[in-house]
Write a structure and sequence with these properties.
The complex is a heterodimer of chains A (about 400) and B (about 300).
Chain A lengths: L1 H19 L2 E7 L4 H14 L3 E6 L4 H10 L6 E4 L3 H8 L17 H11 L7 E13 H7 L7 H13 L5 E2 L8 H12 L4 H7 L4 H4 L1 H11 L11 H9 L5 E5 L2 H8 L5 E4 L10 E11 L6 H11 L2 H11 L19 H5 L3 E2 L12 H11 L2 H19 L1
Parallel strand pairs in A: 1-2, 1-3, 5-6, 8-9
Antiparallel strand pairs in A: 3-8, 4-6, 4-7, 4-8
Helix pairs in contact in A: 8-11, 12-13, 17-18
Chain B lengths: L6 H5 L4 H37 L17 H8 L1 H33 L5 H13 L2 H23 L15 H25 L4 H9 L4 H12 L1 H16 L3 H6 L11 H11 L3 H32 L1
Classes of the chains: A alpha/beta (about 400), B mainly alpha (about 300).
Chain lengths: ~400, ~300
């Protein structure tokens, strides 16, 4: 009896000591929505006084994360994009597989499938948290002045560009000095004209860029011919500011450009429509902008699971998405931003698809080929280069 | 750990060889920290890189295999890598020639008897202490905004747009910024060389009635031949490794028209997940740099002996 009490006091004191020293979880994130993360974490710590969340916001996020992973010191949770970097880490076995986790069932299947196809298997190495979207941004007043409706088909878009040119306006701003800008441009068209199986087929040698992307290249070249005078000399910040000040009618970008436009000109009246890539019904590109991945080798799996569950409650997810102004990935939600009103029906009807580029192998540098093509107008050279480099990159990595 | 090497030490019964050994130990201990630092932060990672270059390592994870010389073979079939080597060599040769010509002219000017000589020397040295990246970003802005306005004002078509956006002209912008920044260091080296020339040589030449060009050709240039060698070698080595200017000005674009080898190694290795492949490229590039530097030194040294 005496020994029992002794044992129980010992056990109690052990419990007490572990409770007083809170478990620390490290949460790694780029520079998106930092203040909102802080709010959510302080709420979480109030509910769970035995857990402390350390928010780390490193400069040059991907490079720092890579060095941490190389040293086998992967942060407990990482919030990052569903991009080629994610593909590399996931294939390297760094992240936990959430495929059979209940949290995944809250997410629209399309985003879960995106993460699966990025890695090329059944595993889901993160929980999609916010999405981004690409579309055609336009200056509301300028379009009204031209007497044109926001275009929903490719021919209407070209007609609008022609009309703007005839009226002495700059129809379109393109910022090709930054090569990456060609990717959203390509994605918005390719998602509607290239089969979703393209990447797998190209790897198997059953199709080529020359066959599948010829039409995409034609459209990119045709649209680009309506741009301002020196698109290759214009960088993304310069071009965004120029469009915000009303120097052109149209701008091709993702929703991440909206805050930049408003920063350059708080009074800018702009809106976005689904990109008019074809004359049929157009699909909207929507990729995973942020996903929550957790380290496969974390020392605190229970605490990490608690925090993941907390962040993905509908209320908290919506709080975060409103703060960063991003379309939600959770089932039953549509974009709430008024400027994205025209995108709502695409989301509601599920007429959305991931960016084709996310399935390209890392190291392809597709953007450099498109940038060169829009400069020298040599479509064949770009498509052949993409085909050859795709094969080379695969040879190097297997 | 002081070594006394005067007579009192010897009379204290220390024999000469033992004393030398004590001295040797002292020098060894003085050199050791630098050797250790160099080994830990330079030699060891370099050897690691060489080992990785024979694998298909991604940069993280533990699932990689030994692939032998495959990476090396593939570099020679990689059009992008070959283009980067071509660009780097053309860029380096041109910039080396330009920077040495510019630096020598300015150094001779700063070495002559002019007012505000020291102030001017300080001003000309300024670019050297600025960060290459900052300078690059400033020039990036100038090429995008100021130069086109001037070009349009003068009615020069090729200058009225951003030259960094044209694959046939972008290299000019990079050469300009690189030379502007690098000249400062070479000016200092040439100034040091010019100050070693005895003045009576020039006096003798004056008496013989030599003109300025003859004096330069027959006295100045031969006398600073050693400095010319070191300037050529250092400039070439630095320009072959050009990186920061490209990051700040073009990011290798438009297309891949201004990709240098260092930039490609960084981009492919860290962004493109080709860690092992680009390690092989780095090893190859290291060998190329050594060969170029050795050839330069041998060729230019022979010139020095003749002079």
């Amino acid at each position: 009896m005496k020994r029992m009490t002794l044992l129980s006091t010992l056990a109690l004191s052990l419990l007490a000591s572990s409770a007083s020293a809170a478990t620390e979880i490290e949460f790694f994130v780029g520079n998106k929505g930092v203040d909102t993360w802080k709010q959510l974490f302080s709420q979480f710590e109030k509910q769970n006084p035995d857990i402390k969340v350390n928010l780390v916001v490193p400069p040059d996020f991907v490079a720092v994360l890579k060095t941490r992973i190389v040293k086998n010191k992967t942060p407990d949770i990482v919030a990052m994009g569903g991009d080629t970097n994610f593909k590399g880490f996931a294939e390297g076995g760094v992240f936990k597989d959430y495929a059979s986790d209940a949290l995944i069932r809250k997410v629209k299947p399309i985003y879960v499938q995106q993460l699966q196809s990025i890695v090329g298997g059944k595993e889901v190495y993160g929980i999609p948290y916010t999405a981004n979207t690409i579309g055609l941004i336009y200056n509301v007043d300028k379009l009204k002045a031209l007497g044109v409706q926001p275009p929903t088909t490719y021919s209407a878009f070209i007609a609008a560009l022609k009309k703007a040119k005839a009226a002495g306006q700059t129809p379109l701003t393109l910022t090709l000095k930054d090569a990456w800008v060609t990717l959203p441009f390509m994605n918005a068209i390719a998602v509607n004209t290239v089969p979703a199986t393209f990447a797998a087929q190209e790897t198997a040698g059953k199709t080529t860029f020359q066959k599948a992307y010829s039409g995409v290249a034609d459209k990119m070249l045709e649209i680009a011919s309506y741009s301002q005078a020196d698109p290759l000399g214009t960088s993304y910040p310069d071009g965004t500011a120029s469009f915000a000040r009303g120097n052109s009618v149209f701008y091709i970008q993702g929703d991440w450009a909206l805050p930049d436009i408003l920063a350059a000109n708080p009074g800018a009246k702009v809106a976005m429509v689904p990109f008019p890539a074809t004359d049929a019904r157009n699909k909207v590109v929507s990729s995973v902008d942020l996903l929550l991945a957790s380290s496969a080798s974390t020392r605190h799996p229970a605490e990490v699971a608690k925090l993941m569950a907390f962040l993905t409650t509908p209320q908290n997810a919506v709080t975060f998405q409103k703060a960063v102004n991003a379309p939600s990935v959770q089932i039953g939600t549509v974009p709430t931003d008024a400027r994205l009103a025209a995108m709502k029906s695409s989301y509601a009807s599920g007429n959305i698809e991931g960016a084709p580029f996310n399935l390209f192998p890392p190291g392809l540098s597709a953007e450099t080929f498109w940038q060169a093509m829009l400069q020298d107008k040599n479509k064949q050279k770009a498509l052949q280069g993409l085909d050859k480099t795709w094969a080379d990159v695969l040879k190097r990595s297997n | 750990m002081s070594v006394l090497s005067d007579d009192r030490q010897v009379s204290a019964g220390l024999t000469a060889p033992r004393k030398r050994r004590r001295q040797d130990l002292t020098f060894l201990f003085m050199a050791l920290p630098a050797v250790i630092l160099f080994f830990v932060f330079h030699t060891y990672p370099a050897v690691q890189g060489i080992l990785y270059s024979f694998t298909n390592f991604k940069g993280f994870g533990n699932n990689y295999d030994f692939v032998g010389l495959r990476n090396y073979v593939q570099i020679f079939q990689d059009e992008r890598a070959m283009a980067a080597y071509r660009f780097t060599f053309l860029f380096a040769i041109l910039s080396t020639v330009l920077v040495n010509a510019v630096a020598l002219v300015i150094a001779i000017g700063l070495n002559s008897n002019i007012r505000f000589r020291n102030t001017l020397r300080a001003i000309y040295f300024l670019p050297n202490i600025l960060s290459v990246l900052i300078v690059g970003f400033i020039f990036n802005y100038l090429f995008a905004n100021l130069v086109p306005k001037i070009g349009a004002g003068l009615g020069i078509a090729s200058l009225s747009k951003n030259i960094l956006g044209d694959p046939h002209l972008a290299w000019i912008g990079i050469v300009f910024v690189a030379v502007w920044q690098a000249a400062a260091f070479n000016i200092i080296l040439y100034l040091a060389g010019l100050q070693t020339i005895p003045y009576d040589l020039y006096e003798a030449a004056d008496i013989d009635g030599a003109g300025p060009w003859q004096k330069f050709r027959n006295i100045t240039f031969p006398m600073i031949a050693a400095f010319f060698t070191i300037n050529m070698v250092l400039a070439m080595k630095a320009f072959l490794q050009v990186f920061d200017q490209i990051v700040a000005l073009t990011g290798g674009g438009p297309g891949t028209s201004t990709e240098s080898v260092s930039f490609l190694i960084y981009k492919g290795g860290f962004d493109g997940g080709q860690f092992a492949y680009q390690s092989a490229n780095a090893v190859l590039f290291f060998i190329v740099l050594v060969v170029v530097s050795l050839l330069q030194t041998r060729f230019l040294h022979r010139r020095e002996v003749e002079a």
